[in-house]
Design brief:
By secondary structure, the chain is α/β, with parallel strands linked by helices. It is built from 12 helices and 17 strands. It has 2 domains: 94 residues, GMP Synthetase, Chain A, domain 3 (2-Layer Sandwich), CATH 3.30.300.130; 251 residues, P-loop containing nucleotide triphosphate hydrolases (Rossmann fold). The strands form 5 sheets. The chain has an 8-stranded mixed β-sheet, sandwiched between helices. The longest helix has 20 residues.
Length: 364
């Protein structure tokens, strides 16, 4: 049976460029595969007519493979600088060097932060954005200078959760000035588009949008940058891993098996791009009756703790179901910005913030 690389070569050879099969050209720079998702980086001059047709052809051909269901094609004007150490190059046969697929060099965005943390989930609906924002606020209240980047291009929730719907960032000397709210410096594409606008974008457009927000925002720097990732394990996650030197990833899940299966995928994805797992947060862990205090495990119990033992990563904490958490997000008044915030959920966020710092200290 052909390897995946051989299958890719076969289907790409069906595409001809100036009379030559595509694999024999230098257009395809690299390919990164994660489960059923494949991301190609191709290099074409800005004036090339192939920019309009080649990405679609590659997507259509690769999707014919039974093991691949999602494809993204990033188009660059120039190939990233090859920073492969010379001693490593020496071990590669000359016949292999010309066609060796390389992962693009990481771009040095957000280097003015001591730690850049991705908050991710394998699936939607687990409260990742709620955890991201309240964690950022909990860290800020502990004395850290914190910024927040809402990287969920398709479903940005930051403007709603902070009461900044319709607020546009200021443009100053061709730079976007981050919004300042609740002690955070923040940016979200939700503050650049209309509330009801649908982002019907292919992978390369999303990739470019994420890079533009990282590059053109005048981030002030500081102790910690929290990046609220979109759900899943797709092209934005791979783009962020290339654009930034992430200190680690916090994975959010709920206790039930269905959510944990997708959390496993997120953990596996980050391991493939050499990003350490800071730990797992179990959201909606239980419901605590506000009258009698009895705890009810609505979505099962201790699933995230078991996942931590399986993958040997830290368990950061469990957040209970609490009405104030939901109301705070809907009203633009997140729980950790309310006073007094001494509820079980608020205590959980403070504990998780402490555990995140402790886990980072252990990693570095």
């Amino acid at each position: 049976m052909e390897s995946l690389e051989q299958q890719f070569t076969s289907v790409l050879a069906e595409i001809e460029v100036d009379g030559r099969p595509l694999p024999e050209t230098e257009i395809v720079h690299s390919c990164v595969v994660n489960n059923d998702f494949a991301k190609f980086t191709i290099v074409l001059p800005l004036e090339s007519r192939l920019r309009q047709i080649l990405p679609t052809q590659i997507e259509e051909n690769i999707r014919n493979l039974p093991s691949i269901s999602r494809v993204a094609v990033e188009v660059l004007e120039k190939a990233p600088i090859d920073d492969e150490p010379e001693e490593n190059k020496a071990s590669i046969p000359e016949s292999e060097k010309s066609r060796q697929a390389r992962q693009p060099q990481r771009t040095a965005y957000l280097q003015n932060y001591d730690a850049v943390l991705a908050v991710a989930s394998g699936k939607g609906g687990v409260g990742k954005s709620t955890v991201s924002l309240n964690l950022a606020l909990a860290l800020q209240q502990k004395g850290f200078s914190v910024s927040f980047f809402d990287a969920d291009i398709y479903g940005p929730s930051f403007p709603i959760m902070t009461g900044l719907r319709g607020v546009k960032p200021e443009l100053r000397e061709e730079n976007l000035m981050p919004l300042e709210v609740m002690g955070l410096h923040a940016m979200s594409i939700g503050n650049l588009i209309d509330d009801e606008a649908a982002m019907v974008w292919r992978g390369p457009m999303v990739h470019q949008a994420v890079e533009q927000l990282l590059r053109d925002t005048a981030w002030p720097g500081g102790d910690i940058m929290i990046i609220d990732m979109p759900p899943g394990t797709g092209d934005v996650q791979l783009s962020i891993s290339q654009f930034c030197e992430l200190a680690g990833a916090v994975v959010v899940s709920t206790p039930q098996d269905m959510a944990l299966v997708d959390a496993y995928k997120a953990i596996t994805m980050f391991s493939k791009v050499d990003i350490p797992i800071v730990g797992i947060v179990e959201n909606m862990s239980y419901f605590a009756c506000p009258h009698c205090g009895e705890k009810t495990a609505i979505f099962s119990q201790h699933g995230a703790e078991e996942a931590c033992r399986k993958y040997e990563v830290p368990f950061l904490g469990a957040i209970p179901l609490e009405l104030a958490v939901r109301e705070g997000g809907d009203l633009g008044k997140p729980l950790m910005n309310q006073a007094p915030s001494d509820s079980p959920a608020a205590e959980a966020f403070r504990l998780i913030a402490d555990n995140v710092i402790s886990s980072l200290d252990d990693l570095y």
